[in-house]
C-alpha cells in the first residue's frame, strides 16, 4: 500500500478513536481526570494519596478518569473502582511503561496521544494532578493553556503535594510572571491541595453557584477543542 493510501486509512482510524471516545465517555459525567507518574509503586505515599483521593471522589459521585496504566494511574483507578462511581481508563499503546491496570469499569484504548488528550479534557469537571514526569507536565500544561486561551471551559485544576510542586510554582511566579510571558492572574488557574477532603471542598466550592454540567456556551467551546 502506498504511503498516501496509508495516510488516508489513518484518518479513518483516528476518526474511530474519537467516535468511540465520545460515545463511551458522554455517560460518565461528572468526571474528574487524575494524573501522575506511571513509575511510583503501590507503597509510595503519592500512590496511596491518589488512591484515597479517587475513592473520595468516587463516593462523592464523580467518575474518575486516568490514563489506565500503572503507578498513580493505577492508584486512581483502584480508588475509584472501590467506590460507588465509574473507574475509567484511557489506555495508550506505548513501547514501554503502559500496561493496563485491572481496576477499570470502562476501558478505552488509543493509538494517538492527541485523541486521548481530548477525552481527558472534554469530559472533565476537574483536574487532579499528582507528582509525575514529562507526561504529567504535558497534561498540566495542556489544560492550563486551553483554559488560559479560552479554548476550554474553566474548571478546577488541583495540584496535590505542595512540596513536589513548589519549585514549579515558584518558577511560574518568579520567572514567567516577571518575564511577562504569563500574567499574574494566570496563577489563579490552579490551586494546591493535600488531602481528599481539601480536593472535594475545592471542587464543590467552585461549582457551588452552578451545576456540574457545562452550560450551553461552554458546550460550544468544548466542540472546538
Features:
225 residues; alpha/beta; Rossmann fold; seven-stranded parallel beta sheet; 7 strands; 49% helix
Written description of the protein model:
The chain is of the alpha/beta class. The protein has one domain (14-162, 191-200, 212-217): 3-Layer(aba) Sandwich (Rossmann fold), CATH 3.40.50.450. Helix content is 49%, strand content 14%. It is built from eight helices and seven strands; from the N terminus they run αβαβαββαβαβαβαα. The chain has helices spanning 3-25, 45-59, 72-82, 113-122, 134-148, 162-179, 196-206, 216-223, and strands spanning 31-35, 63-66, 87-92, 106-110, 126-129, 157-160, 191-193. The protein has a seven-stranded parallel sheet, sandwiched between helices. Helix 2 runs parallel beside helix 3 (72-82) and helix 2 packs across helix 7 (196-206). The longest helix has 23 residues, at 3-25. The relative contact order is 0.14. The mean pLDDT is 93.
- SS-derived structural category: alpha/beta
The total of beta strands comes to 7
Name of the top-level CATH class: Alpha Beta
The largest sheet, given as strand count, sense and whether it forms a barrel, is: 7 strands, parallel
SSE succession: HEHEHEEHEHEHEHH
Query: pLDDT under 50 segments (min length 5)?
Result: none
Radius of gyration: 17 Å
Strand line-up across the major sheet: 4-3-2-1-5-6-7
* Domain unit count: 1
Question: What is the averaged pLDDT score?
Answer: 93
What coarse outline follows from CA principal-axis ratios? globular
Content of β-strand: 5-15%
Could you name the CATH topology?
Answer: Rossmann fold
